[in-house]
Structure prediction request, 443 residues.
Amino acid sequence: MSIRHSLLALLEEGPRYGYQLRSEFEARTGATWPLNVGQVYTTLGRLERDGMVEPVREAGVGADGDRQVFYRATDEGRAEVARWFERPVERSTPQRDELAIKLALAVTVPGVDVARVIQAQRTATLRVLQEYTRLKSQTHPTDAKELAWMLVLDSLIFTAEGEVRWLDHSEARLSRAAGDGMFTRAVDTSETTPAVAEVERASR
Amino acid sequence: MTPILELRDLARTHGHGVTAVHALRGVNLSIEPGELVAVMGPSGSGKSTLLTLAGGLDTPTSGDVLVEGETLAGLSRRRLAALRRRAIGYVFQDFNLIPALTGAENVALPRELDGVKARPARQEALRALEELEIGDLADRFPDDMSGGQQQRVAIARALVGERRLVLCDEPTGALDSETGEAVLRLLRGRVDAGAAGVLVTHEARHAAWADRVIFLRDGRMTDETGRAAPAEALLGVAR
Prediction:
């Protein structure tokens, strides 16, 4: 995540000090990607070194009454923000995805019950999806910052949904592959449990 | 609290012997007022069978379906039909509104079938539409409504009168993602107000509006998410 660009972008609204930048960032993104204030000040320090921001000469007073150093973006900083918004986020190098790696290994390592791995993950991801959805159902945006938070929630929701769809797809693909003898299921999931067999006998 | 819907060891088998197809086996489920339960699973996993059994549209091979504490199997055909009309509402993917009737008339129809006179039935229908903030659709015909509007009217119809159980089969299937979400928000609201719902869907994003999600596979419940923890636990947001 580009903390650097996020802070620069927030400074487009006017001079801010460290704590304020953190809370402005979190107002838009929830606590999804928590920023600690140390990171904020370190980043501001680097931005100042690179000529992207400068301290406002007269130190101001923050919300808590303490004196704070306010920063503003320089012309160069503003140009950098503009370039950031224009440039697509780099997607050509995939981030390491533990789940994809886990499934890839589960299919090839002997003795792993892949169907169970998939089901356990699907349930866990759906739980997360439910929680995001609950947060969303409590959110009724009335200003741009809340709208921003809604977009972030939607992004988390669509990502989780994508994962569930991929799990569904993998399950179908594996069951076809097992039919073709390409891969052996560790445990046959279609096996009837004793309780179910009982019910079925009774129903005949 | 009496569950609005209870499925006990429910099984449905089509055919006999070696050719028998177990559409559903050993399903237990209990849904209380205020609860929305989503059912997910690949096609042929038994989702629709579960819904038709719960709605009394089909009879289980074994096990029981209880609606508001009443066992469907013990009812005469007439009483079953009456219970189905009085207690259960349906929402389908293709809205199923009657094209020759206005929004209000569509919603009033099940009440008139219940024996309510035309005028009070219309009053109830208007109230149901108002509660869903779609009073403006009362005098419009389905053909003049968007898909999302038709589905909102269908939800009003499903929950008009004393109906407290709403069974939904892919209710967002024909809608774009934002309209689908608005329909689910509405359904969620009606359930929060005291109804109970079953939502069959293959879309995880929609299932996530439910309190619990159950997974079916080859007619059996393979897993469920359980009642979720408070959302704040996830992101640590105090909003």
Summary: Residues 188-204 of chain A have pLDDT under 50 and may be disordered. Chain A touches chain B at residues 30-32, 119-120, 122-123, 125-135, 137-139, 157-158, 160-161, 164-165, 168, 171-172, 189-190, 192-193, 195-196, 199-200, 202-204 (CB under 8 Å). The first strand of chain A starts at residue 53 and ends at 55. Residues 116 and 189 of chain A are 9 Å apart (CA to CA).
